[in-house]
């Protein structure tokens, strides 16, 4: 069931989304050669504490996961697509990093992700990150009252496939509100004009993921959480929490 949020609730979600934006900005700023992923997790955790917010990631355990998620931040490096578990790995020059973060404040949740390169970038990585951001922008542009979920999916997929990249099957965006994952699902590829019609008050986490090698194949790492590309190519991820309103899409996790 899809819950339509009131304008007051959307404002409350914006407050949660700003905590998310501050945490991602702080973690991005702290990311440098020699910094560990655990240190980035602590930077993000500090922002939560200062805001009086909690983490919807910490302790989360969906049906596929062998253990509860042990951190507040997903940190995926190079061939990791999403759900990377922060550990002692220290960032190296040229690493492609995707950070995904959520916050719960006042009973409402925000969720967002960004990708970037540490130190000296590879040309191909810059294009990969830029494509993920363009796909996100295209998805948001399609998130207007009267359109359908398929219009968002088609907009994202057109950008990703047009750049020659793969899209991991079965993973995409989702509704969000009181819980991190709500109905409806928001695929990263689909046919326009299909699916649920978008209405004022729907709030969606729109999140394209792209695989640089052009295939859609991935596997779970031994930790049971991290999804990695089968061909070893790099991946990027971008996400915002977006409210569908009569005045157009409103980004609640803007940084």
Automatic annotation (TrEMBL):
Keywords: Aminopeptidase, Hydrolase, Metal-binding, Protease
Name used for this protein in its record: Methionine aminopeptidase
Enzyme superclass (EC): hydrolase
Known cofactor(s): Co(2+); Zn(2+); Mn(2+); Fe(2+)
Residues that coordinate or bind a divalent metal cation 2: 111, 174, 207, 239
Domain of life of the organism encoding this protein: Bacteria
Name of the encoding gene: map
Pfam families per record: Peptidase_M24
Subunit structure: Monomer.
């Amino acid at each position: 069931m899809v819950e339509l949020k009131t304008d007051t609730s959307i404002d409350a979600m914006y407050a949660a989304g700003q905590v998310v934006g501050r945490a991602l900005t702080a973690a991005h700023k702290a990311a440098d050669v020699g910094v560990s992923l655990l240190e980035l997790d602590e930077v993000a955790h500090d922002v939560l504490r200062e805001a009086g917010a909690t983490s919807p990631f910490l302790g989360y355990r969906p049906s596929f996961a062998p253990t509860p998620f042990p951190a507040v931040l997903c940190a995926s490096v190079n061939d990791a697509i999403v759900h990377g578990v922060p550990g002692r790995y220290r960032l190296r020059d040229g690493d492609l990093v995707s950070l995904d973060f959520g916050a719960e404040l006042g009973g409402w949740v925000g969720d967002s992700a960004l990708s970037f390169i540490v130190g000296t970038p590879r040309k191909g990585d810059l294009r990969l990150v830029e494509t993920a951001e363009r796909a996100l922008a295209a998805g948001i542009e399609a998130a207007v009252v009267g359109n359908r979920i398929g219009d968002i999916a088609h907009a994202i997929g057109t950008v990703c496939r047009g750049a020659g990249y793969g899209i991991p099957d079965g993973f995409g965006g989702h509704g969000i509100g009181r819980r991190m994952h709500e109905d409806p699902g928001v695929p990263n590829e689909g046919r326009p004009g299909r699916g649920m019609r978008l209405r004022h008050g729907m709030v969606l986490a729109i999140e394209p993921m792209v695989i640089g090698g052009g295939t859609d194949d991935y596997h779970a790492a031994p930790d049971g959480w991290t999804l990695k590309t089968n061909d070893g190519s790099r991946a990027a991820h971008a996400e915002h929490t977006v409210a569908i309103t009569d005045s157009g899409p409103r980004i609640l996790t803007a940084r």
